[in-house]
Amino acid sequence: MAKITYITKEGESLVFEASSGSLMELAVKNKVPGIDGDCGGVCSCATCHVHVAPAYYEKLEAPSEIEADMLEFDDNVNEYSRLCCQIPVSDAVDGITVEVAN
Length: 102
What we know:
The structure is a single chain. The chain is of the alpha+beta class. The chain is built from three helices and five strands; from the N terminus they run ββαβααββ. The chain has helices spanning 23-29, 54-57, 65-72, and strands at 2-7, 13-18, 49-52, 81-83, 97-100. It has a five-stranded mixed beta sheet with strand order 2-1-5-3-4. Strand 1 (2-7) and strand 2 form a beta hairpin.
């Protein structure tokens, strides 16, 4: 089980555990405000934009070209921006914190 912390735009910390799926699926399942996942996780809408805590960003695989392109069209992009539909739940992300970007 991986423990994932989402920080909402209002500063609320929401902590959930999962063993499969993506960070977007976990957020949508638990109704995290600001993460809509309109495209269902196929990297075509950017409604799951998050800022990954710097300590975890380097532990993730680099964004794909498609993900990088989607982020170019989104507001609030920074060097730690990711689409959480592209971050799989695994032991590698246990303890990760992400801030909802929009």
